[in-house]
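chain below, 274 aa
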Amino acid sequence: MTRTARRNRRTLQVTGAGVAALLALSACSSSDSGSSSTTSDSSASASDKLSGTVTVFAAASLQESFTTLGKQFERAHPGTKVTFSFGGSDSLAASITGGAPADVFASASPKTMKIVTDAGDASGAPATFVRNQLEIATLPGNPDKVASLKDLTNPDLKVVLCDKEVPCGTAAQKALDASRLKLTPVSYEQDVKAALTKVELKEADAAVVYKTDVHAAGDKVGGVEFPESADAVNDYPITLLKDAQHTDTAKAFIALVRSAEGQKVLTGAGFLKP
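prediction:
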């Protein structure tokens, strides 16, 4: 009890019947003040609580790690939900500029991110959160003895690449150009997962994909590193989108991706630190 309250109480004790009314008024005032404080605290707490669904458009190579981070985010913030649309970065960028509803865009290259920023659909400057390097995916056990990028030019091998407009396809072409090699694939695939699947299903003997995809495939494929991949490392930028519906929640997901906890998941999947 405050000194002022104690003085009031002593005064009320000597003023007779009027005291009761004053005490009641004082008690009521005190109660109202406490209630107001509690309500204010509750409101502040409620305003700080994240809620709503965050829709994330992300490069296909992020599928495994982002799915893990999405589950972590939902556990840490009950009442939130993270939904994903994975695919080729160029297709995702086109969807965003075409008006597809999304809150966050994570691209496999600055070039495809620029499509979104040039259209004015990003909120703020994108930030690079990881990098990724190419690797050759082979059939399990590498029966064709692929040991280099040059080996893929063997006409007896069925090789697939990502489409040239997709970041993994652009990177593969950059590595081939640096090596002065010409490669005619049996097909160009719409994203890195589609290219990898061709090898997993034994419809192709090899594919140029990302290290992260070879890592995620486990024993379904073999992996062959090649030095030319160092000339074609992709930066992955992420950004909040202009028309995000739950801005605070979307920002919090981006913060998780860029945090030490997020980086641990991403580097564990084979990504390189930015």
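The longest helix spans residues 17-48. DSSP finds ten helices and ten strands in the chain.
thats it, cya
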